[in-house]
Amino acid sequence: MAVGYLMGKVPGFIFNPMKRLKTKSLKKMKLYMSVVMGVAQDVVDKQTALYAHGKEGSKDLMSVLVRANLSENPETKLSNEEVISQLTTFFFAGHETTSSTLVWVLYELSRHPEYQTKVRDEIKATRARITERGDGELTISDLDSMQYLTALMKETLRYHPVITLVRRQANRDDCVPLDIPITLTTGEVVTSILIERGQEIQILKSTWGEDADEWRPERFVENLDLKQQTKLGVISNMMLEMQSILIELVENFEFSPPPGDIEILRVAVGFMAPILGDRVKGSKSGRIELPLTVKPL
Protein backbone atom coordinates (compact mmCIF):
# COMPACT_ATOMS: atom_id res chain seq x y z
CA MET A 1 0.00 0.00 0.00
CA ALA A 2 1.29 3.46 -0.87
CA VAL A 3 2.84 5.64 1.82
CA GLY A 4 0.67 8.66 1.04
CA TYR A 5 -2.52 6.63 1.31
CA LEU A 6 -1.44 5.10 4.62
CA MET A 7 -0.58 8.54 5.99
CA GLY A 8 -4.14 9.58 5.21
CA LYS A 9 -5.45 6.74 7.37
CA VAL A 10 -3.59 7.93 10.49
CA PRO A 11 -6.12 9.37 12.99
CA GLY A 12 -6.38 13.15 12.76
CA PHE A 13 -5.69 13.71 16.46
CA ILE A 14 -2.24 12.13 15.89
CA PHE A 15 -1.27 13.40 12.45
CA ASN A 16 -2.79 16.91 12.34
CA PRO A 17 -0.59 18.33 15.14
CA MET A 18 2.47 16.94 13.32
CA LYS A 19 1.47 18.76 10.12
CA ARG A 20 1.51 22.10 11.98
CA LEU A 21 5.13 21.70 13.04
CA LYS A 22 7.50 24.19 11.37
CA THR A 23 10.69 22.14 11.24
CA LYS A 24 12.91 22.35 8.15
CA SER A 25 12.59 18.63 7.53
CA LEU A 26 8.79 18.75 7.49
CA LYS A 27 8.79 21.80 5.21
CA LYS A 28 11.03 19.98 2.74
CA MET A 29 8.91 16.85 2.92
CA LYS A 30 5.74 18.86 2.25
CA LEU A 31 7.39 20.59 -0.71
CA TYR A 32 8.64 17.31 -2.22
CA MET A 33 5.25 15.62 -1.74
CA SER A 34 3.45 18.61 -3.25
CA VAL A 35 5.64 18.52 -6.36
CA VAL A 36 5.51 14.77 -6.91
CA MET A 37 1.76 14.57 -6.28
CA GLY A 38 1.23 17.40 -8.76
CA VAL A 39 3.21 15.50 -11.39
CA ALA A 40 1.30 12.29 -10.62
CA GLN A 41 -2.05 14.08 -10.95
CA ASP A 42 -1.00 15.54 -14.30
CA VAL A 43 -0.06 12.06 -15.57
CA VAL A 44 -3.40 10.64 -14.42
CA ASP A 45 -5.34 13.49 -16.05
CA LYS A 46 -3.59 12.94 -19.40
CA GLN A 47 -4.15 9.19 -19.31
CA THR A 48 -7.80 9.64 -18.34
CA ALA A 49 -8.26 12.03 -21.27
CA LEU A 50 -7.04 9.30 -23.63
CA TYR A 51 -9.73 6.96 -22.31
CA ALA A 52 -12.33 9.68 -22.81
CA HIS A 53 -11.37 9.75 -26.51
CA GLY A 54 -11.75 5.99 -26.86
CA LYS A 55 -8.09 5.02 -26.44
CA GLU A 56 -7.96 2.26 -23.84
CA GLY A 57 -4.20 2.13 -23.45
CA SER A 58 -2.23 -1.06 -22.84
CA LYS A 59 -1.05 -3.24 -19.96
CA ASP A 60 1.46 -0.72 -18.59
CA LEU A 61 1.23 0.38 -14.97
CA MET A 62 -0.37 3.73 -15.75
CA SER A 63 -3.12 2.19 -17.90
CA VAL A 64 -3.92 -0.45 -15.28
CA LEU A 65 -4.26 2.18 -12.53
CA VAL A 66 -6.46 4.46 -14.63
CA ARG A 67 -8.70 1.55 -15.65
CA ALA A 68 -9.09 0.70 -11.97
CA ASN A 69 -9.94 4.34 -11.25
CA LEU A 70 -12.64 4.39 -13.96
CA SER A 71 -14.00 0.95 -13.10
CA GLU A 72 -17.64 0.73 -12.01
CA ASN A 73 -16.96 -2.48 -10.08
CA PRO A 74 -16.59 -1.50 -6.39
CA GLU A 75 -14.30 -4.50 -5.77
CA THR A 76 -11.68 -3.37 -8.30
CA LYS A 77 -12.21 0.39 -8.32
CA LEU A 78 -9.46 2.64 -6.97
CA SER A 79 -10.19 6.16 -5.76
CA ASN A 80 -8.25 9.08 -7.21
CA GLU A 81 -6.39 9.38 -3.90
CA GLU A 82 -5.33 5.74 -4.07
CA VAL A 83 -4.15 6.05 -7.68
CA ILE A 84 -2.07 9.16 -6.89
CA SER A 85 -0.57 7.48 -3.82
CA GLN A 86 0.37 4.38 -5.80
CA LEU A 87 1.99 6.51 -8.51
CA THR A 88 4.04 8.58 -6.07
CA THR A 89 5.31 5.36 -4.50
CA PHE A 90 6.41 4.05 -7.91
CA PHE A 91 8.02 7.42 -8.71
CA PHE A 92 10.16 7.28 -5.59
CA ALA A 93 10.95 3.55 -5.75
CA GLY A 94 11.48 3.34 -9.50
CA HIS A 95 13.36 6.55 -10.25
CA GLU A 96 15.23 7.66 -7.13
CA THR A 97 17.58 4.67 -7.22
CA THR A 98 18.52 5.19 -10.88
CA SER A 99 18.80 8.98 -10.78
CA SER A 100 20.81 8.98 -7.53
CA THR A 101 23.26 6.42 -8.91
CA LEU A 102 23.67 8.45 -12.13
CA VAL A 103 24.43 11.54 -10.05
CA TRP A 104 27.31 9.75 -8.31
CA VAL A 105 28.55 8.29 -11.62
CA LEU A 106 28.83 11.81 -13.08
CA TYR A 107 30.46 13.03 -9.88
CA GLU A 108 33.19 10.38 -10.08
CA LEU A 109 33.68 10.88 -13.83
CA SER A 110 34.23 14.60 -13.21
CA ARG A 111 36.94 13.74 -10.65
CA HIS A 112 38.55 11.06 -12.83
CA PRO A 113 38.94 12.53 -16.35
CA GLU A 114 41.25 9.68 -17.38
CA TYR A 115 38.51 7.12 -16.78
CA GLN A 116 35.98 9.38 -18.48
CA THR A 117 38.22 9.27 -21.56
CA LYS A 118 38.40 5.46 -21.39
CA VAL A 119 34.62 5.19 -21.38
CA ARG A 120 34.25 7.72 -24.20
CA ASP A 121 36.80 5.87 -26.35
CA GLU A 122 35.01 2.58 -25.65
CA ILE A 123 31.71 4.11 -26.80
CA LYS A 124 33.33 5.37 -30.02
CA ALA A 125 34.84 1.94 -30.71
CA THR A 126 31.49 0.25 -30.14
CA ARG A 127 29.74 2.74 -32.43
CA ALA A 128 32.32 1.98 -35.13
CA ARG A 129 31.68 -1.77 -34.82
CA ILE A 130 27.91 -1.47 -35.23
CA THR A 131 28.42 0.81 -38.24
CA GLU A 132 30.71 -1.78 -39.85
CA ARG A 133 28.11 -4.52 -39.47
CA GLY A 134 25.40 -2.27 -40.89
CA ASP A 135 23.33 -1.72 -37.74
CA GLY A 136 22.01 1.61 -36.60
CA GLU A 137 21.35 0.99 -32.93
CA LEU A 138 23.21 -0.56 -30.01
CA THR A 139 21.98 -3.99 -28.94
CA ILE A 140 22.03 -5.47 -25.43
CA SER A 141 25.05 -7.54 -26.51
CA ASP A 142 26.82 -4.32 -27.48
CA LEU A 143 26.07 -2.83 -24.06
CA ASP A 144 27.31 -5.97 -22.30
CA SER A 145 30.56 -5.86 -24.29
CA MET A 146 31.45 -2.40 -22.96
CA GLN A 147 33.54 -3.49 -19.98
CA TYR A 148 34.68 -0.02 -18.86
CA LEU A 149 31.12 1.33 -18.87
CA THR A 150 29.85 -1.71 -16.96
CA ALA A 151 32.72 -1.49 -14.46
CA LEU A 152 31.95 2.21 -13.99
CA MET A 153 28.39 1.47 -12.91
CA LYS A 154 29.28 -1.53 -10.74
CA GLU A 155 31.97 0.38 -8.88
CA THR A 156 29.67 3.35 -8.32
CA LEU A 157 26.96 1.07 -6.95
CA ARG A 158 29.60 -0.46 -4.65
CA TYR A 159 31.19 2.79 -3.50
CA HIS A 160 28.07 5.00 -3.49
CA PRO A 161 25.22 2.60 -2.64
CA VAL A 162 21.83 4.27 -2.92
CA ILE A 163 20.73 2.41 0.21
CA THR A 164 23.65 2.78 2.60
CA LEU A 165 23.20 -0.43 4.57
CA VAL A 166 21.58 -3.64 3.43
CA ARG A 167 21.58 -6.61 5.79
CA ARG A 168 21.06 -10.11 4.45
CA GLN A 169 18.99 -12.50 6.54
CA ALA A 170 19.34 -16.26 6.20
CA ASN A 171 16.04 -18.04 5.51
CA ARG A 172 17.46 -21.44 6.51
CA ASP A 173 20.36 -22.96 8.43
CA ASP A 174 23.51 -23.10 6.30
CA CYS A 175 27.29 -23.49 6.34
CA VAL A 176 29.18 -20.73 4.51
CA PRO A 177 32.78 -21.49 3.42
CA LEU A 178 35.28 -18.66 3.96
CA ASP A 179 37.48 -17.48 1.10
CA ILE A 180 40.06 -16.34 3.68
CA PRO A 181 40.40 -18.59 6.78
CA ILE A 182 40.21 -16.85 10.16
CA THR A 183 42.55 -17.70 13.05
CA LEU A 184 40.84 -17.35 16.43
CA THR A 185 42.59 -16.20 19.62
CA THR A 186 42.67 -19.84 20.67
CA GLY A 187 44.77 -20.68 17.61
CA GLU A 188 41.92 -22.56 15.93
CA VAL A 189 41.65 -21.93 12.18
CA VAL A 190 38.07 -21.46 10.97
CA THR A 191 37.36 -22.21 7.31
CA SER A 192 33.56 -22.00 7.43
CA ILE A 193 30.82 -20.33 9.46
CA LEU A 194 27.57 -21.88 10.59
CA ILE A 195 24.63 -19.59 9.83
CA GLU A 196 21.33 -20.02 11.64
CA ARG A 197 17.97 -19.23 10.16
CA GLY A 198 17.01 -15.59 10.82
CA GLN A 199 20.62 -14.49 11.39
CA GLU A 200 21.73 -11.23 9.74
CA ILE A 201 24.92 -11.28 7.67
CA GLN A 202 27.34 -8.55 6.59
CA ILE A 203 29.72 -8.80 3.65
CA LEU A 204 33.40 -8.49 4.58
CA LYS A 205 35.23 -5.41 3.35
CA SER A 206 38.16 -7.63 2.35
CA THR A 207 36.07 -8.90 -0.56
CA TRP A 208 37.00 -5.81 -2.59
CA GLY A 209 40.74 -5.78 -1.94
CA GLU A 210 43.11 -3.51 -0.05
CA ASP A 211 41.90 -0.41 -1.94
CA ALA A 212 38.25 -0.95 -1.00
CA ASP A 213 38.05 2.65 0.29
CA GLU A 214 38.91 4.01 -3.16
CA TRP A 215 36.66 4.47 -6.19
CA ARG A 216 38.46 2.35 -8.80
CA PRO A 217 36.31 0.74 -11.54
CA GLU A 218 39.32 -1.11 -12.96
CA ARG A 219 38.91 -3.70 -10.18
CA PHE A 220 35.96 -5.14 -12.16
CA VAL A 221 38.05 -5.28 -15.34
CA GLU A 222 41.28 -6.67 -13.88
CA ASN A 223 39.85 -9.18 -11.39
CA LEU A 224 38.11 -11.93 -13.36
CA ASP A 225 36.88 -13.69 -10.20
CA LEU A 226 35.30 -10.47 -8.91
CA LYS A 227 33.76 -9.80 -12.31
CA GLN A 228 32.16 -13.25 -12.43
CA GLN A 229 31.04 -13.28 -8.79
CA THR A 230 29.30 -9.89 -8.93
CA LYS A 231 25.78 -10.74 -10.07
CA LEU A 232 23.39 -7.97 -11.05
CA GLY A 233 20.21 -9.85 -10.18
CA VAL A 234 17.09 -7.69 -9.96
CA ILE A 235 18.92 -4.48 -10.95
CA SER A 236 19.69 -5.70 -14.49
CA ASN A 237 16.96 -3.52 -16.00
CA MET A 238 18.20 -0.50 -14.07
CA MET A 239 21.71 -1.16 -15.39
CA LEU A 240 20.45 -1.18 -18.99
CA GLU A 241 18.64 2.11 -18.40
CA MET A 242 21.74 3.70 -16.89
CA GLN A 243 23.96 2.40 -19.69
CA SER A 244 21.72 3.98 -22.32
CA ILE A 245 21.65 7.33 -20.52
CA LEU A 246 25.39 7.37 -19.79
CA ILE A 247 26.31 6.58 -23.39
CA GLU A 248 24.42 9.66 -24.58
CA LEU A 249 25.84 11.87 -21.82
CA VAL A 250 29.49 10.82 -22.03
CA GLU A 251 29.43 10.78 -25.83
CA ASN A 252 28.14 14.35 -26.07
CA PHE A 253 29.43 16.11 -22.96
CA GLU A 254 32.58 16.43 -20.88
CA PHE A 255 32.15 16.60 -17.11
CA SER A 256 34.56 18.30 -14.71
CA PRO A 257 34.42 19.76 -11.17
CA PRO A 258 33.02 23.29 -10.82
CA PRO A 259 35.38 26.21 -10.18
CA GLY A 260 36.19 27.00 -6.58
CA ASP A 261 36.79 24.89 -3.49
CA ILE A 262 33.46 23.08 -3.35
CA GLU A 263 33.02 20.10 -1.06
CA ILE A 264 30.38 17.46 -1.73
CA LEU A 265 29.21 15.42 1.25
CA ARG A 266 27.48 12.05 1.11
CA VAL A 267 24.45 12.21 3.39
CA ALA A 268 21.82 9.54 3.96
CA VAL A 269 18.35 11.08 3.55
CA GLY A 270 16.46 7.87 2.89
CA PHE A 271 18.92 7.42 0.03
CA MET A 272 22.54 8.53 -0.44
CA ALA A 273 22.39 12.17 -1.58
CA PRO A 274 25.04 14.79 -2.47
CA ILE A 275 24.93 17.79 -0.11
CA LEU A 276 27.01 20.95 -0.47
CA GLY A 277 29.46 21.34 2.40
CA ASP A 278 31.59 24.18 3.75
CA ARG A 279 35.24 23.17 4.22
CA VAL A 280 35.97 26.19 6.43
CA LYS A 281 32.97 26.05 8.75
CA GLY A 282 32.69 22.28 8.67
CA SER A 283 28.97 22.50 8.00
CA LYS A 284 26.58 21.52 5.23
CA SER A 285 24.02 23.59 3.35
CA GLY A 286 21.21 21.07 3.63
CA ARG A 287 20.53 21.41 -0.10
CA ILE A 288 20.60 18.30 -2.27
CA GLU A 289 22.59 19.36 -5.32
CA LEU A 290 25.69 18.47 -7.28
CA PRO A 291 27.26 21.37 -9.21
CA LEU A 292 29.38 20.27 -12.19
CA THR A 293 31.00 21.96 -15.16
CA VAL A 294 29.47 20.52 -18.34
CA LYS A 295 31.10 21.17 -21.72
CA PRO A 296 29.45 20.12 -25.03
CA LEU A 297 31.69 18.04 -27.31
Automatic annotation (TrEMBL):
Its cofactor is heme. InterPro entries: Cyt_P450 (IPR001128), Cyt_P450_E_grp-I (IPR002401), Cyt_P450_sf (IPR036396), Cytochrome_P450_monoxygenase (IPR050121). Pathway: Secondary metabolite biosynthesis. GO terms for molecular function: heme binding; iron ion binding; monooxygenase activity; oxidoreductase activity, acting on paired donors, with incorporation or reduction of molecular oxygen. It holds the Pfam family p450. Keywords: Heme, Iron, Metal-binding, Monooxygenase, Oxidoreductase. The keyword Transcription does not apply. It comes from the Eukaryota. Belongs to the cytochrome P450 family. This is Cytochrome P450.
